[in-house]
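Database export, one record per block. Field names are fixed; values are copied verbatim from the stored entry.
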Amino acid sequence: MQEPISELKKRILKTVYEKKEGHIPSAFSILDILWVLYDRVLKIDPKNPTDPDRDRFILSKGHASIGLFAILANAGFFPFSEFDNFAAYDSPLGGHPDRNKVPGVEASTGSLGHGMPIAVGVALGEKIKKSAVKTYTIIGDGESNEGTIWEAALLAGHHKLNNLTCIVDYNHSTDPAIEVHDFTEKFKSFGWESFEVAGHDQEALYEAFMKDSDGKPKAIIANTVKGKGIKTIEADMLTWHHKRPSEEELDEFLKELDG
């Protein structure tokens, strides 16, 4: 990876400010998870993103697309000049990822609850083919209110898809509407191996990715913070869910990331 996460966060902030589009808190919530996946876990070549033997990653919570795009640009799937054009009329990079336009994007997601079932289908297909391909997906805790998430989880457990890992971005965004409580035990009850981890601790994340799942699909419950690194956003995540910073706020946030 080329740039540190703090620099990627600055790019995201500046781009959202300039283009008036993007979900900053959701992107910052998953950035450490994505970093570990693309830097240390996924077997995938940015120069050959359609290699049939590549691992698959699906961002089920598609509204966090700008976070994924920053990581993909940083990993070399496309140049940062393309990232800087995010959400422009002629840009392939939009508010949700499009698999037909963006190298490295495996599924067009955005309607919550869809990416997880796609990941289960991909993993099942690869298991039937007896391939070594692994599939990973990130869902949000709010997204887990969709019934399709648990229908897919039940199917994955039944077929013992040990080539599948689901990461729950547990940033508590759903708490004001409905508290989900213990994700770890919920996934275990569906036949998964399940681990809880600090979602911004990259070493802890990597260790969780490397753990054996005992022949079952793996759930990693990542305890995260929406807007991680910007105290104003962390303290008021609901207001900032899809908010663009003012010029003054942008300057303040950039200074905060400089430490």
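Remark 1: Residues 5-258 form a domain with the Rossmann fold fold (CATH 3.40.50.970).
Remark 2: The two ends are 21 Å apart (CA to CA).
End of record.
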